[in-house]
Specification:
This protein has a single domain (22-129), classed as Fumarate reductase/succinate dehydrogenase, transmembrane subunit (3 helical TM bundles of succinate and fumarate reductases, Up-down Bundle), CATH 1.20.1300. Helices cover 75% and strands 0% of the residues. The chain has helices at 22-53, 55-66, 68-95, 102-129. Helix 1 runs antiparallel to helix 2 (55-66) and helix 3 runs antiparallel to helix 4. The protein is elongated, with a radius of gyration of 21 Å.
């Protein structure tokens, strides 16, 4: 196609004409959660440095983490871990050749998304109402 005229070249589908699928969202979420986990790892390093620096640095950070924004951030971090783990396992299963049919891929993508929503809620319930103290 090196000598083809521009009007003869194939045109890739544009976002505006491409129909969104749950598997597309799953792929995008996998990349986003991977990036988010890198940021969370930096946050963990900062938290550890604040803990090592003493109460003057640690107390304000813990006050932030116990506030609404900190709780939302912690929920999102746990959801990202759950999603990235479950979707990674999903892709390992794909590597065996199983689950590649479009209906199976859609079902497993929905399962992974719902799993990522449920895990932080389940962890919160376990820590709040469970016998762990």
């Amino acid at each position: 196609m090196a000598g083809a005229r521009p009007d003869q070249r194939p045109i890739s589908p544009h976002v505006s004409i491409w129909r969104w699928h749950v598997t597309m969202a799953s792929s995008i979420l996998h990349r986003a959660t991977g990036f988010g986990l890198y940021v969370a790892a930096l946050g963990l390093a900062l938290w550890l440095m604040a803990a090592a620096a003493g109460p003057q640095m640690y107390d304000p950070l813990m006050a932030f983490l116990m506030g609404p924004l900190g709780q939302i951030a912690l929920y999102l971090i746990v959801a990202a871990i759950a999603y990235h783990l479950a979707n990674g396992i999903r892709h390992l299963v794909f590597d065996t050749g199983a689950g590649l049919a479009p209906s199976e891929a859609d079902t497993t993508a929905w399962f992974v998304i719902l799993f990522a929503i449920a895990v932080p809620i389940g962890l919160w319930a376990l820590l709040t109402f469970g016998g762990v103290r």
